[in-house]
Design goal:
- The chain is an alpha/beta fold and 215 residues long.
- It has one domain (7-211): Rossmann fold (3-Layer(aba) Sandwich).
- The protein has helices at 13-25, 29-50, 70-79, 154-158; strands at 10-11, 54-57, 84-90, 97-102, 108-110, 116-118, 124-125, 133-136, 140-141, 147-148, 167-171, 179-180, 192-194, 199-201, 208-209.
- It has a nine-stranded mixed sheet with strand order 7-4-3-2-8-11-13-14-15. It has a two-stranded parallel ribbon with strand order 1-12. It has a two-stranded antiparallel sheet with strand order 5-6.
- The structure holds the ligand Nc1nc2c(c(=O)[nH]1)N(C=O)[C@@H](CNc1ccc(C(=O)N[C@@H](CCC(=O)O)C(=O)O)cc1)CN2 and adenosine-5'-triphosphate.
- The ligand Nc1nc2c(c(=O)[nH]1)N(C=O)[C@@H](CNc1ccc(C(=O)N[C@@H](CCC(=O)O)C(=O)O)cc1)CN2 binds next to strand 3 and helix 4.
- The ligand Nc1nc2c(c(=O)[nH]1)N(C=O)[C@@H](CNc1ccc(C(=O)N[C@@H](CCC(=O)O)C(=O)O)cc1)CN2 is lined by residues 58-61, 66, 88, 90, 97, 113, 115, 137, 149-152, 154-155.
- InterPro entries: FTHF_cligase, FTHF_cligase-like_sf, NagB/RpiA_transferase-like.
Length: 215
């Protein structure tokens, strides 16, 4: 796919949230379908290239036009069954997530924002130190790998709990912006970001871009 939507500007997190929530909300069903499919294909190639044993992923709010990670999860369950999938649950009233192993049998319940989460009593709690790769939700990201989410700070609290070798891979329907103006000391940069157009890579803090065909 080719992008005609490059954003060469610098904005605050608050403005980026508004702008990219809007851009996401106006994507038509067919466009969402195509972008989701291409991102899932790229993500599966990316995953295969690292042979992780354990992947953490958000569970999507598809009606809010989040990236449909169920396409990725379903394919892993079908063709890479040895990979353990872990999904988060927000501990109500806190800025913290807990994390559960999910299988096709896992009972999911919606939290107060409508986000599907593993039911905590019947699901198996996971060991965060086992996670090899994290598929990270975002609204916008910049060319240095910093991201903007819904503003809860959940992922910036979660990343330092993970082992340092865990690969943080963002998923985005859109290209990066030039700069997020108001980063703070808690912001943790991504290692990779997969868009429908290319896979960005910042491992070892060298901002580089892989060509479109590479995982
Ligand atoms: N699918 C999914 N799961 C995820 C995340 C995500 O981005 N996507 N999160 C990523 O961190 C965490 C949830 N983060 C959230 C942070 C703030 C608000 C929030 O403040 N919501 C507003 C309403 C937002 C709206 O619907 O426009 C509110 O409660 O007023 C919601 C979720 C954990 N699980
Ligand atoms: N590890 C942390 N310890 C304390 N405060 C934190 C930490 N991480 C983030 N915060 C604070 O949480 C608030 C929200 O952070 P930010 O705006 O970066 O959220 P976000 O990355 O958009 O949200 P999310 O990670 O949930 O998608 C900010 O005030 C930030 O300083």
């Amino acid at each position: 796919m080719c992008s005609t939507e490059n954003y060469y500007y610098s904005m605050t997190k608050e403005l980026l949230r508004k702008e990219f929530l809007l851009r996401r909300s106006v994507l038509k069903t067919e466009e969402l379908h195509v972008r989701n499919r291409v991102i899932a294909e790229r993500a599966l190639l990316h995953i295969s290239s690292f042979s992780p044993t354990s992947i953490h992923t958000f569970l999507p709010q598809v009606d809010k036009h989040e990236i449909n990670t169920m396409l990725i999860i379903g394919e892993i369950w079908r063709s890479l069954p040895n990979i353990q999938i872990i999904a988060p649950r927000v501990i109500p009233g806190t800025p913290t997530m807990e994390h559960f192993v999910i299988t096709p049998e896992t009972i999911l319940v919606e939290n107060k924002w409508g986000i599907p989460e593993p039911e905590p009593i019947t699901s198996q709690i996971s060991d965060i130190q086992e996670i090899d790769m994290i598929l990270v939700p975002l609204l916008a990201f910049d060319i240095n790998g910093f991201r903007v989410g819904y503003g809860g700070g959940f992922y910036d609290r979660f990343f330092p709990q993970c082992k340092s070798s865990a690969i943080k891979t963002g998923l985005s329907f859109f290209d990066p912006v030039q700069e997020i103006e108001n980063l703070d000391k808690f912001d943790v940069a991504l290692d990779y970001c997969i868009t429908p157009y290319q896979t960005f890579h910042w491992r070892h803090s060298i901002a580089s871009q892989l060509s479109g065909d590479q995982p």
